[in-house]
Amino acid sequence: MLPILYLVTLPMLGRNLLGYDTVLRYICPILIALVPAAIILAGEALPGIPRRGRGQNTRPMVALMTISLTTFLLLGAFYGPLVHRIKQAANHGSILSFPAARAPIYSNYSRFAMSDEAKEAVSDLQHLVPEGETLVAWITLPLHLDYRRNRVLNVEPGGLGSPAQDFPFDGDAESADEYFRRHGVRYVLWERTGAAARSVERLLKESASRFAHDRRYGRNALAFYRMLLDLSQRSNILHQDKTYLLFRLP
After folding, report:
1. What are the CA-CA distances from residue 9 to residues 4, 35, 113, 140 (Å)?
2. To which H or E segment does residue 239 belong?
3. In angstroms, rounded to a whole number, what is the distance separating the alpha carbons of residues 173 and 169?
4. Whole-angstrom Cα distance, residue 115 to residue 109?
5. Cα of 170 vs its chain's centroid, Å
6. How does 43-59 read in b/e, with b if 16+ C-beta sit within 10 Å?
7. According to the model, what pLDDT value does residue 99 have?
8. Domain positions in the chain
9. What is the pTM for the complete model shown?
10. How many Å is the Cα radius of gyration of the chain?
11. d(CA 37, CA 189)
12. Averaged in consecutive runs of 10 residues, what is the pLDDT profile of the chain (250 residues)?
């Protein structure tokens, strides 16, 4: 019942909340799972295949052939995308569906993200934070953080836009500082610029989106960005370069 409710309500709400493109992306995995299950259940519900002979009921055979043909047609619909994904994986090292995944800048960044250089950069910054301290990290490569060494609170725009989020986005830097202190946070690692970092221009664009979900996380992320900027100006800067900013709250 819940999957059916999900499939019915998401398209109805999605026009204003997410947009139809995003709704389709959310629904497709469920449909891909439901269709084979429905075909299997339909096949099991068929009576036994009749033997040859006049007067035999041929409806089960026709139904079986119809289900089989439908199955092959559905599988055929995935042939083109499958070949495309295989070629993309071979040529670009990625099977992501959006066109940017085939852009040279994305391929170069992906190679950098998995390199020892990127891992060492993040690791070196984390070692400036005392072991055991709580760290807020708004970076694009949190996979290189050592979560055993520090308690890490990852920041991501989707999470900032969550209705369950209780961060004081409408407050000022003092409100943010109080919130961090209440959660035991003394250190902040922030990737301000970079190939995958969200710029102020992008956050402003997302804040003005016609979709409610995008507007929410765009506005919250922009408010969070500005609060971190204010906090960093009154905090102890431990490291600052063209990409990363690490500071200790006052």
Report:
1. 9, 19, 38, 33
2. strand 236-240
3. 10
4. 10
5. 25
6. eeeeeeeeeeeeeeeee
7. 73
8. 2-106, 115-248
9. 0.73
10. 26
11. 46
12. 66 67 74 75 64 56 73 76 82 74 81 92 97 96 96 91 88 91 95 86 89 86 94 95 94
pLDDT at position 16:
67
Residue of 244, 204, 217, 178 whose CA lies nearest to 18: 217
The number of CA neighbours under 13 Å toward the Cβ of 89 is 7
SS3 call for 190: strand
**What pLDDT is recorded for position 239?**
97
Q: Please calculate the CA angle 2-211-137 and round it to the nearest 5 degrees.
A: 85
Residue with tokens 């989106």: 209
Phi, psi of 53 (to 5 degrees): 145, 155
CA distance 89 to 79: 15
Q: What is the pLDDT of residue 20?
A: 67
Beta carbons of 227 and 173 less than 8 angstroms apart: yes
Cα–Cα distance, 193 to 22 (Å, whole number): 27
**pLDDT for the residue 40:** 75
CATH architecture, domain defined by 115-248: 3-Layer(aba) Sandwich (3.40)
- Of the candidates 193, 199, 167, the one whose C-alpha atom is nearest the C-alpha of residue 245 is 193
Distance CA 68, CA 153 (A): 50
* Tokens read off for 112: 């950098």
